[in-house]
Design goal:
The structure is a homotetramer.
Chain A lengths: L3 H13 L6 E2 L4 H4 L7 E7 L2 E6 L5 E2 L4 H13 L21 H6 L8 H14 L3 H13 L8 H10 L1 H12 L7 H12 L2 E2 L1 H12 L13 H14 L5 H7 L4 E3 L4 E6 L3 E6 L2 E2 L6 H14 L5
Antiparallel strand pairs in A: 1-9, 2-3, 2-8, 4-5, 6-7, 7-8
Helix pairs in contact in A: 1-13, 3-5, 3-11, 5-8, 5-9, 6-10, 7-9, 8-9
Chain lengths: ~300, ~300, ~300, ~300
């Protein structure tokens, strides 16, 4: 058996001595205010077993990590009908949110590029009674934590600078792939991105994807069929155009956000979340990528 | 414990009663001659344990499956220097062999698109003493089978119709990403594609990727580090623009060829090969995809 | 000397007997209501000499033809500073409004694709005191006709279905290439497109581009330098991805609109406008293209 | 009447005092050897009237200017059937020889991008009895000069470094848009590019495009119909992705080559050729562009 606490401590110390070449995302003013020095890791190896180091309990803006929650909820609600409106292929795009495919068909390549997540938000908007309340309740329920909430300042900050997302939503609307108003869909989408969670809350919530659809309290939220597929999409599409690199170096399904969080998991073994706000050039946490690479190297644990 | 033989039999019977909507690849005349009705599956669950059904012992043209062997050999020879000349990101391209990235940089996105495999062939050409002999010896060694060989008729057929590959190789040459002559590299590449193997020979040879780098006779060919990464590339890039779909529906690292073969594996558990010569619109075996989807559904075994 | 009236009559009769394979633009509901049978031609060969046939006096929605007026006004106001924010190269794009170039730089390729005209609208908004009033006054002044006006119903119809333009404007805004609010710029842009003019009013207004910058009443509106350049852009960019074809078959600078109007000119010789509301697959008037091709064939007059 | 000789002298003196920021094309070794200081201009205003300055009588490699001759000959031979295999639209591409269109259809956008000229070469190869002899005879005939010839050293130099052209030709072949062998077509194409001519020989030969299809000795080579269309293609496609800029600043149909030559014409008025071997970033002669811009500014002569 592995001494996980020592491994986490080791990674933490090493990173603290490493030059941080990443940069905080500054296109969203609220994110630019984060403390660059923050670093936390939380590892959950079972409902009652976890390990942690550093700022694992500090809440940060989960940003695109929320796309996994919205995908899970929409998949739960509409099943495979979801795939009529969004694909499951990696995008391979480096420079923008809309590939040629979207321009030609209005079908985003996958649910983790912004355009895809906007379609998922539209589906939730059409299928939830009180979208904002119901969605945050779903996340709270997965994490067993009622303190999780939206951050209105971040949501507003996203709206004010989200021209690319307005562009994407309008393209989708022009193809008839949004049922609701562009403004309504984006307001909901920006709120999803603004959710504040800590590393610990993330490993708790993601336990459902590691545990065949059952949360820490053993309640069934998703079928094995759906969990397998959500994990597959995390692996192939979870890190923008660095998805191949993450699969190659880390070898775990996972999802990153520009708030500096990364959460990953080994089915039936563990969930792990890292937070460090500075990003590499691909938009993924600079130290987060290093931490997870070291963790899988040291433990020799990966899906491959 | 699962009754693998019954599961294979069941899949085989079901497919035999299913309408075959696939089409044999006809751009290579030699491939067009294959018997459309052929169907074989071979499963290896350990060095001494295997299960099979149908035409599992018939040799066919492995085509792009050979790209895994050439990648493995080149990675073995030059290590991570390989990644200076080829990337590890999925291509997301549906319509051609060269993405914008190649046009702009001369660095193919990954070693499993043709342009990438041509770079790998160039590396082998520069690093093997007798490239054709040494390469086939490597494959024979992995499979423990001296009968494996090139098919000169298929190789010649590929050369005569391989204008796209000539185009790709010339682009790479123009960027200085081929050390050897275009004609020499392509002759070697076409020979790799022409290798004839059966499903059984494939599961034998791929056992090395399932077994942490050790072949069936426990000889170490590759490090765990390298095997993990080769498997990751199979998962993210092994099925052209259907890689996401295969990860989503099947959830195993694998590689397909236009000869109708698909081979896949679950690390530490099994290798499986299916052969049926008719292809779906994405160029992957129509029945092969169905067989593997059913196999992972019925056994509930996947990396996710 | 040519008998222009006979030539126009001949073209008109011939077209009236030709099967009309074009289709009325239906993405803007107001445009779909136009009478498909309408056909008018107006030719102006000097301030006091003109020829006409058919519905040359009926007003229609000039749509993208307005982009020539907005370019002329912006060029007049800011001079060559204009070209810091928009290019002069043909787009070569068939399928959408934003090419890769725009995605990468935020600089539209030319002022006649929608994204380019939206930048021009932004410039006018920043440089005109009362943008809507001042702009329509400029057009009235060129045409010597106070009856020319916006069509509020068409403008509103454009706004409600203009998701692509909202997308383009948001991309431009994200690159900092719009100074004003997206909504304000687009409201102004939609109004420009909604202007109603007849063939006769168009040849009157475009006389300034045929006459070295002087309008029919000999008032100097633009320098020779600017007129030459506006004409060049009409030639290379005036017909979307059919610009090459129009130069090839007709050989005149010109501009089309999805309302079915086309206006063209031979410097120092004539301006000509045709209107027929049904469009070919490239979005240019089906009969308009034929009429102008016949006119230059019969008269042997073109810039080439 | 204009004093053309003084204008040419003035342009020449001014350029001689201007810093030359261009660079000689070095990807073809033979071209890299040219004297950077060379500068010549030749203007022909009628069969018996011409003006010149500097190195107007020195022969240089005409490179892509030959594409106009091959287009003219192929158009003469097969008429409008030509347009089944190549388009007439500007390419708008900055970074390579093959746009997405070629990848998808095998039909080059126009006859002046390399892929298009390769198709034209294939047509000539199929329709001329002795292609190389007949083609050079055609050029000699237009220029009334038997000394014009291929440069075998340049042709061989092109072949050795022409990987991009091999790529393009193989793509065309894969689509069935080449009738002859790739090697044969390219050998002929490289020879065309290698033709050596002086500015004077170019204005003589291009007189046919300025004079409605009749050469200096009044022999009819091409119909008015064809000349009009060749001129249109020069205007819209003659300067790679600087075609819009050339139309905008100069306003004449013309064609450039990486040997540093540019030839342009005003129908019914003049042909003009400039040669200076250093190129701007778009691959057109740095001083050549400046000279022609000044010439049209000073004379106020252009098609617009």
């Amino acid at each position: 058996m592995q001494d996980y606490q020592s491994i986490l401590n080791e990674i933490y110390s090493q990173l603290k001595e490493t030059e941080n070449k990443g940069k905080v995302a500054d296109y969203i003013p609220e994110l630019a205010k984060m403390d660059k020095e923050s670093l936390g890791i939380h590892l959950r190896t079972g409902p009652d077993e976890s390990f942690a180091v550093g700022d694992y309990a500090t809440k940060f803006s989960i940003q695109s990590i929320s796309k996994v929650f919205s995908l899970a909820k929409a998949f739960q609600l509409v099943g495979n009908d979801l795939w009529k409106r969004v694909g499951v292929e990696p995008s391979g795009n480096t420079f923008n949110y809309l590939s040629l495919l979207e321009w030609e068909t209005g079908i985003p390549r996958n649910p983790f590029i912004n355009a895809g997540a906007i379609v998922v938000a539209d589906i939730l908007l059409s299928n939830l009674k009180n979208p904002r309340e119901d969605f945050i309740d779903f996340v709270r329920d997965l994490a067993h934590d009622e303190t999780i909430d939206y951050n209105e300042t971040v949501a507003e900050s996203e709206r004010e600078t989200g021209f690319n997302n307005y562009a994407a939503a309008n393209i989708l609307k022009s193809f008839g792939n949004l049922e609701n108003d562009v403004e309504d869909v984006l307001q909901f989408y920006f709120h999803q991105c603004s959710i504040m969670m800590s590393c610990e809350q993330l490993t708790n919530a993601f336990f459902v994807f590691c545990n065949g659809g059952r949360c820490m309290e053993d309640k069934k939220h998703l079928s094995r069929y759906k969990v397998k597929r959500i994990n597959a999409i995390m692996l192939t599409c979870g890190f923008y155009d660095e998805a191949g690199e993450f699969a190659f170096e880390v070898g775990l399904p996972g999802k990153s956000g520009v708030g500096g969080g990364i959460v990953a998991l080994l089915p039936n073994h563990f969930t792990i979340a890292v937070w460090s706000p500075t990003l590499n050039v691909k938009g993924n946490s600079y130290f987060g990528m290093k931490a997870l690479k070291q963790f899988t190297d040291k433990t020799d644990l990966s899906i491959f």
